[in-house]
Design brief:
Radius of gyration: 13 Å
Number of helices: 5
Helix content: over 70%
Strand content: under 5%
Order of helices and strands: HHHHH
Distance between the termini: 41 Å
Number of domains: 1
Largest sheet: none
Shape: globular
Number of strands: 0
Length: 90
C-alpha cells in the first residue's frame, strides 16, 4: 500500500508546494498533490502553480500573517528557480 509520503516522493513537486496548493484551493493534501502533479507538466500549469503560491503569500501578508507569507514567498521563489524558463511568463 502506498502512503502519502510515497505519493509525495513520487511527485515532481516538493511537499511545501503541495501544501501551498492545498491551502490556496482549500482542498485536501492528496487532492492538491493530484492536481499539482497534473499541472506541473505543462507551462500553463506551472504558471498557475506559481501564481497560486504567490497569491496565497499576498493574502497572508494582507491578513497580518507575515511569517507564513515569507515562507510562501520562499516556496514560490524556489519553485520558479527550479523550473526556470519552464514556468510560463504572462
Amino acid at each position: 500500500m502506498l502512503t502519502l509520503r510515497d505519493c509525495i516522493d513520487f511527485s515532481d513537486l516538493r511537499e511545501e508546494e503541495i501544501l501551498a496548493i492545498a491551502e490556496c484551493e482549500h482542498i485536501p493534501l492528496l487532492t492538491a498533490l493530484e492536481e499539482g502533479e497534473s499541472m506541473v507538466h505543462t507551462p500553463r500549469g506551472r504558471k498557475r502553480i506559481a501564481v497560486m503560491i504567490k497569491s496565497q503569500a499576498e493574502i497572508c501578508e494582507r491578513t497580518g500573517n507575515t511569517v507564513h507569507a515569507q515562507h510562501l514567498r520562499r516556496v514560490h521563489d524556489a519553485f520558479v528557480n527550479r523550473f526556470g524558463k519552464m514556468v510560463a511568463r504572462p
